[in-house]
Design goal:
This protein has about 250 residues and is of the alpha/beta class. It has helices at about 30-35, 55-60, 75-90, 105-110, 135-140, 150-160, 175-185, 235-240; strands at about 10, 20-25, 45-50, 70-75, 95-100, 115-120, 160-170, 185-195, 205-210, 220, 225. The chain contains eight helices and eleven strands. It is globular. It starts with 7 loop residues before the first strand and ends in a 6-residue tail after the last helix.
């Protein structure tokens, strides 16, 4: 029997009957997590690491696609919720949730031990004077505990040669992202822009980068449009969310 605590709710993930416990006082997952969970090219034998899992939504969404998932989370409350979500969905044998700071990846994981790393990291750099003003959700969205460099560094350390790194991030930081990838032996191979509406500028990107990949041959996918002009979801977003059958 599910024991919800004060402030918690139970949401349907629309995937293999799975549910997820969330608490609005902490940090509920956003569309970004759902999108990046559907972006990688999975193989059944993959060993996957989710950097900064939050409440564990990405592992829950991809559990049918791979052999083993490790998920690391620094925030103790979210770590505990992620563990409860894994147990709730009877996935303890497939998903292992680790409490820790992935900036300390050398102490937590073995080098080059994963096939795929997925990340939906904090997007926004913390400016001088902002640190003490950031709380709760704001801290989860700002680079308070991990920078872009930290994420790429951790991904490179744990990935096998020719392993895959998939991340969602701000479109405005694409140049920084490419620079960081190159400095850590990554080559971007697939890129998709995400637009709020058809005639709007892209605000997010998703990409796949390969450790030791050859330069060139970047595949730029058609943009992913989130909303129709009437603000309803596009058919592609409905499929991703399970509102239309895709799997």
């Amino acid at each position: 029997m599910i024991q919800l605590r004060e402030g918690e709710r139970l949401d349907d993930l629309m995937r293999s009957g799975r549910k997820i416990i969330q608490n609005e006082a902490e940090f509920c997952f956003s569309m970004d997590s759902v999108l990046i969970a559907h972006f990688p090219k999975f193989k059944k034998k993959f060993k996957v690491l989710d950097l900064g899992t939050g409440t564990g939504v990405i592992p829950l969404l991809i559990a049918d696609e791979v052999e083993k998932i490790f998920a690391i989370e620094l925030n103790k409350k979210m770590f505990e919720t992620a563990k409860r979500n894994v147990e709730l969905n009877n996935l303890s044998e497939k998903i292992s949730v680790v409490e820790g700071d992935y900036r300390l990846h050398r102490k937590i994981f073995s080098a080059e031990s994963f096939d795929l790393v997925i990340a939906n990291p904090p997007y926004v750099p913390v400016k001088n004077g902002e640190v003490n003003k950031l709380h709760g959700v704001a801290r989860a969205r700002h680079e308070f505990t991990a920078t872009l460099e930290d994420v790429v560094t951790a991904a490179r350390y744990v990935l096998k040669f020719h392993g895959s790194f998939c991340m969602i991030h701000l479109a405005s930081r694409l140049c920084e992202i490419i620079d960081a990838l190159h400095r850590h032996q990554f080559e971007m191979k697939r890129l998709q822009l995400i637009q709020p509406k058809l005639n709007r500028e892209a605000n997010l990107i998703m990409f796949e980068a390969i450790v030791g990949g050859k330069a060139g041959n970047l595949k730029i996918l058609p943009p992913l449009i989130v909303h129709e002009e009437n603000n309803s979801y596009t058919d592609e977003i409905k499929k991703i969310y399970g509102l239309q059958k895709v799997f």
